[in-house]
Design brief:
The chain is α+β, with helices and mostly antiparallel strands and 293 residues long. It contains 11 helices and 10 strands. It is elongated and about 75 Å long.
């Protein structure tokens, strides 16, 4: 069943009225033409490899607790519309599993310097810090594992995470003793040691239906930093009073997103023109992230 159309914002309704009365800023055709010729250093969104660190992939989990202040823009109502969709893009559910093999852990949620884009725990175990944790014998193994997982002999449950954009990886959800855990897992793999423990797993998933809604109602484009100081770009963005929101989904190394409602003539034309000028389509990127899982 198709979704009902979303109510238009006050900004969009006023823009439509202004068009009918022949007043207001540049029309949609003019905005589209001017946006197509903007001279901005557009780049494609970088590939974010899923490594052993929870933060190594796209940090989509942040959307669940997205604060309203994360979006900037001129009209509160328009920001609220966008915020309401973004906050539903990712869902999380809790699963309880009676038996998980320690060797299946393939990532860390540790927020220290050890949380990185390294591809495997084996590679992490060879770094300088982890080499200080030595496992020569089975007794060493149980002692080191006991440091990382106090009470593992009593079957204390593992706390784990997974995310669709990380594929099948299971991440250990703990900030303490990452080298001990990594080295114990690597040793168990090499020696064929089966350590079975109960586990509580948080599973994060990108919601395709909400992504469809986002694409239906908004343009979401990756903008280079230079755009916000470019006179031609800012004149186009501001002179019509069009609704928009700025949002930094990723980090300082990746483009900030510009969200433009499609139900406003100028903002829709601006979004289409920017796409033709080379702006990256963040929604298409998110679809690829979901499909790669």
């Amino acid at each position: 069943m198709s979704q009902p159309p979303r109510p238009r914002s006050v900004t969009s309704r006023l823009a439509a009225l202004a068009q009918r009365l022949g007043i207001g800023g540049a029309d949609g055709h003019n905005v589209a033409e001017r946006s197509r010729i903007l001279d901005l250093p557009f780049e494609s969104l970088p590939a974010l490899a899923s490594g052993i660190g929870w933060q190594s992939g796209p940090p989509l989990y942040r959307l669940i607790d997205l604060p309203r202040g994360a979006l900037s823009g001129p009209v509160q109502e328009d920001k609220a519309r966008i915020h309401a969709v973004l906050k539903r893009l990712v869902a999380v559910r809790q699963e309880e599993h009676p038996a998980v093999d320690l060797r299946s852990i393939d990532g860390l949620c540790c927020r220290t310097v050890l949380d990185s884009s390294r591809p495997t725990l084996e590679e992490l175990s060879n770094c300088d810090n982890c080499r200080k944790v030595r496992i020569i014998s089975y007794n060493d193994f149980t002692k080191v594992l006991g440091v990382a997982l106090p009470g593992f002999e009593r079957k204390a449950p593992l706390q784990l995470r997974s995310a669709g954009w990380h594929g099948s990886r299971l991440f250990w959800d703990d900030d303490n003793h990452p080298c001990e855990l990594a080295n114990a897992v690597v040793y168990a793999r090499r020696r064929g040691l089966e350590i079975i423990l109960p586990a509580s797993i948080q599973r994060f998933e990108l919601q395709s239906a909400v992504l469809d809604e986002l694409e239906r109602d908004f343009h979401m484009l990756g903008m280079p930093t230079k755009a916000w100081s470019d006179a031609a770009f800012m004149e186009l963005l501001l002179e019509t009073g069009m609704p928009y929101a700025r949002f930094g989904l990723f980090n300082s190394e990746t483009p900030e997103s510009l969200l433009l409602p499609r139900d406003h003539p100028q903002s829709d034309a601006f979004g289409r023109g920017l796409r033709e000028a080379g702006a990256a389509d963040v929604i298409a990127y998110l679809r690829r992230v979901g499909a790669a899982a």
